[in-house]
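Possible regression after last week's pipeline update?

I re-ran a chain I had predicted before the update to compare outputs. Posting the input and the new output here so someone can diff against the archived version. Not blocking, just want to make sure nothing changed silently.
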Amino acid sequence: MSKKFTLPEPSEAAILDAIRRGLRIHPKVAWFERMNSGAHVAGEGPAKRFIRFGFVGCPDIIGQLVDGRFLGIEVKRPSGRVSPHQAAFIQRAVEHGGVAFVARSVADVFDVLDRCC
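New output (post-update):
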């Protein structure tokens, strides 16, 4: 009896890093930045504050294409799920002429950029 081995999924961080490297060399990308969103408690006692950064649904990468259009990329592992807020942001950006999508690999990014632009 033979055992079937499967490779583990790459982490979202590894996929994000690979996508950022790919975006740096893609000729249709004018600029991009990694967006972090979430919250943090800072300080102690009466100075304690809850600080939110980014916004709900914000994609992992935002930028601009050389033709001036907005670029938004939500990075997920192959098994990762898109939240309703993330899906709504992508839909809204696309409805208003932007290029926004979910990417699970560098190949996904290049496929979209090569098709849309």
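Follow-up from reviewer: compared with the archived run. The chain has a mean pLDDT of 94. Marking as no regression found.
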